[in-house]
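Sanity check

After download, print the first record. It should look like this:
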Amino acid sequence: MLKLVLGGSGSGKTTLLYSRIKARAEQGRRSILLVPEQFTSSTEGRIYRELGDALSGMVESFSFTSLAERILSAEGGAAAQKRISPWKWTKQRQAFAHIITLTLTKGMLIPRG
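Expected structure tokens:
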């Protein structure tokens, strides 16, 4: 289930997010974090710091691009890449990432990028 946490700067969104993720991990439930491209490395580092060795494996962080690539790979997109030109493949990836963005923001229908 997709849940949005909204609030102003310094309101505790990140602290709340990591406490909820930790609670889910302790219950044996997996979580996915969708973050902007520039924050994937720092997010993975923070997951490890906050949850430690035992629980950090219960959380995956993705950018829109890496999520699109994971889905395409799992659903046969990697095979399609070999049959089409690199330009067309890039355009399809961009379109797919745009669809994911629209889907995740469906309540607001805000196209990004």
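If your output differs, re-run the checksum step. Summary of this record's structure: Residues 106-113 have pLDDT under 50 and may be disordered.
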